[in-house]
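As described in the Methods, two query proteins were run sequentially through the folding procedure within a single session, without resetting any intermediate state between them. The first query and its resulting structure tokens are shown here.
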Amino acid sequence: MHKLLFLALIALIYMFQIQLRYGHGGLEDNKRMELMIAQQEENNLNLYKRNEMLRLKIAALKGSSDSIEARARYELNMIKPGETLILLPDNNK
């Protein structure tokens, strides 16, 4: 009788260990989730850098009509062959 009880307890402990390792919310799920979080944080950092660059471009475009003209001419291919477009800093400030 004691041997059966001992074997049943060992089997129960083994089942709990398997549940802890491979079950829903177990160690394997935890490792997978940590990897997904690290990948998402890296992706978020890249998106944050891209957004900062866009904010700087927008600030530059809002600051001067010359920069708007230069960007429009460059994007619409309105620069003549051999022409060099140079923006000088505004001396009025």
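Immediately afterward, the second query was submitted; its sequence and tokens are:
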Amino acid sequence: MILADSSVWVDYFNGKRTSKTDRLDSILGKESIIMGDLILVEVLQGFQKDADFEIAKNLLLSFPVMAMAGKELAIKSAINYRILRKKGATVRKTIDVIIGTFCIHHKIALLHDDRDFDPMENFLNLKIVNV
């Protein structure tokens, strides 16, 4: 099971070719992909045209959507943030700590293009999709 972060989806929808978007394109329809509700928000909020929004929404909703926070994961995310800070790593965006913690908790590999996930991979054993 794979979760693609908004950092990859945004590039994908903008037609930007990277190793990460190529990997996403190669697994669509072949591997089990889930959509996190927080990622859904991040991706969809960026569309300017209604037609593009609808196309993206329909594609993203074709994947199972999972809630990413809740009480247990909110507390675990705060703990993980504190662990990283004690190790000298600061994650810039709280939402990235939640996404990383969600993936760790559910043992889901993350496909991303955001350096905020690097300390979670290094110190918290976040599983990353190889490209």
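The chain has a mean pLDDT of 97. We note this only descriptively and draw no conclusion about the first query from it.
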